[in-house]
Amino acid sequence: MQDKEYIAVLIQSLEKKKEILDKIIAKNKEQKILFTDEGSDPDRLEENMQEKSGLVDQLNELDEGFQQIYNRVKAMLQADKESYKEEIRTMQKLITEITEMSTTIQTQEKRNYDLAGKRFAKVKKGIRKARASNRVASQYYKNMANLNVVDSQYMDKKN
Q1: Among candidates 24, 14, 16, 10, which has minimal Cα distance to 103?
Q2: What is the pTM of this model?
Q3: What per-residue string of b and e applies to 126-135 under the rule 16 or more CB within 10 Å gives b?
Q4: CB neighbourhood size of 49 (10 A)
Q5: Maximum CA pair distance of the chain?
Q6: Backbone phi, then psi, for 139, in 5-degree steps?
Q7: Whole-angstrom Cα distance, residue 121 to residue 124?
Q8: What are 83-128's pLDDT values in tens digits?
Q9: SS3 of 133, please?
Q10: Measured between alpha carbons, how far is 112 from 144 in angstroms, rounded to an integer?
Q11: Which residue intervals of 37-159 are DSSP H helices?
């Protein structure tokens, strides 16, 4: 591959990374809805998390590939900046956009983590309340069952 082709692959890699980050942002928005909606489907939340995990794996692969190619052309880019001025500018612009998107994702992740904590605390409280209700109901039924049992009585016939 020639140097221009390597640089084109770097730019394509950055553009693909940007697309994946867009998808992650959308998944985070969906997660927010799933965490805030009391009636949301837990299976949908799990599916969302698996899809997002797949996207993160794709990002890691892209980053590895980008780094390998960049290591090949780094010296050439630094030595001949003027010849690749436009490509360098394009990559810098994409990297700036990716950095902004990464910041957005970090903010979303923090917010969703907090929402998840609140949601799971509510679920835990509901489970505790249900267990307490079951105990009370069970105790009530035991007590009621004991009312029908009449203890043996002794009658005095001395009159």
Answers
A1: 24
A2: 0.76
A3: eeeeeeeeee
A4: 13
A5: 126
A6: -65, -40
A7: 5
A8: 889 999 999 999 999 999 999 999 999 999 999 898 888 878 878 8
A9: helix
A10: 47
A11: 42-79, 85-147
